[in-house]
């Protein structure tokens, strides 16, 4: 088995993937890429090969990718500009001999009618990888359960209300930990080449049902207020969220835009997230965590 590259290894997903991978393969076979390698000193101390890489600077990439056979390409954060970053990474990796690229995508990325604008970056990246000559595996994650348990539940508990444009659209919320374990499984097992996996949790749940679960666990009310897409934009405007990716301040406090969030909700409402698969269990050998389990793990951070 050749060397395995993890990009974005100092991010939350990347660090978790690196830790799990180092439990499965020899450290000298692990290459960790980051714009901030010092944040990976603990992994370097375990014997991993930590390298500087900046996807905005292609000149840094040949040395970063050298010697790798498989790569986990973790989607970068910058909506609107990340396709160019991903293209730079894929081209450099293939030029250096990487033969299999595993990519963290999103559910229904290949559905033409899916209105979520986030899918455009992901599908464009999938197509770049498919055309690169390397084998590919697309990991199409559902919405993270952790995002619900923290970023959604905490302000809802504080306000007592939650405006929502998802209506009765269902989501099988998936734990990021399960997505990490699946990614490492694909990197370390044979037979996943040229396949797309939709990664979900076990239960299809609507946003109102998820908020009711959190309300019950917290012992505090959350009233879900159904709004249309314009109402959702107005809510994000009131919070000072930029409307479009092009309005996001580089390195600013808010790395996402409201058109991303509103069309995400529209996608849920229109049924594009209403899938529950067994891919996590088939690849990891363990049942995926439920939303309730993830909420219980985050409850200590809630404003009770």
Automatic annotation (TrEMBL):
Gene3D superfamilies to which the protein is assigned, alphabetical: NAD(P)-binding Rossmann-like Domain, UDP-galactose 4-epimerase, domain 1
Pfam families reported for this sequence: NAD_binding_10 (PF13460)
InterPro entries registered for this protein in UniProt: NAD(P)-bd_dom, NAD(P)-bd_dom_sf, NmrA-type_oxidoreductase
Domain NAD(P)-binding: from-to ranges: 8-147
Alphabetical list of SUPFAM superfamilies matching this protein: NAD(P)-binding Rossmann-fold domains
Protein name, entry field: NAD(P)-dependent oxidoreductase
Species the sequence originates in: Sphingobium xenophagum
Highest classification ranks of the organism: Bacteria, Pseudomonadati, Pseudomonadota, Alphaproteobacteria, Sphingomonadales
């Amino acid at each position: 088995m050749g060397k395995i590259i993890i990009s974005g290894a100092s991010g939350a997903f990347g660090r978790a993937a690196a830790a799990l991978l180092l439990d499965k393969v020899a450290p000298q076979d692990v290459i960790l890429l980051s714009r901030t390698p010092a944040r990976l000193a603990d992994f370097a101390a375990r014997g991993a090969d930590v390298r500087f890489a900046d996807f905005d600077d292609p000149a840094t990439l040949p040395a970063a990718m050298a010697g790798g056979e498989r790569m986990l390409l973790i989607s970068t954060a910058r909506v609107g500009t990340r396709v160019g970053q991903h293209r730079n990474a894929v081209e450099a990796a293939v030029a250096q001999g990487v033969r299999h690229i595993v990519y963290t995508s999103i559910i229904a990325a290949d559905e033409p009618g899916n209105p979520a604008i986030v899918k455009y970056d992901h599908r464009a990246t999938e197509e770049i990888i498919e055309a690169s000559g390397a084998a590919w595996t697309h990991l199409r994650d559902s919405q993270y359960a952790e995002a619900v348990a923290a970023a959604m539940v905490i302000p809802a508990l504080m306000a007592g209300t939650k405006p929502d444009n998802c209506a009765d659209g269902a989501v099988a919320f998936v734990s990021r930990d399960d997505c990490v374990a699946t990614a490492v499984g694909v990197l370390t097992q044979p037979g996943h080449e040229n396949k797309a996996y939709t990664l979900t949790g076990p239960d299809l749940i609507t946003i109102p049902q998820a908020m009711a679960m959190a309300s019950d666990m917290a012992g505090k009310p959350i009233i879900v207020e159904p709004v249309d897409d314009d109402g959702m934009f107005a809510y994000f405007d009131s919070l000072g969220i930029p409307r479009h990716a092009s309005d996001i301040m580089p390195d600013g406090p808010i790395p996402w835009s409201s058109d991303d969030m509103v069309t995400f909700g529209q996608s849920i409402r229109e049924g594009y997230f209403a899938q529950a698969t067994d891919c996590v269990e088939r690849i990891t050998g363990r049942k995926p965590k439920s939303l309730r389990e993830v909420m219980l793990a985050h409850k200590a951070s809630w404003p009770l």
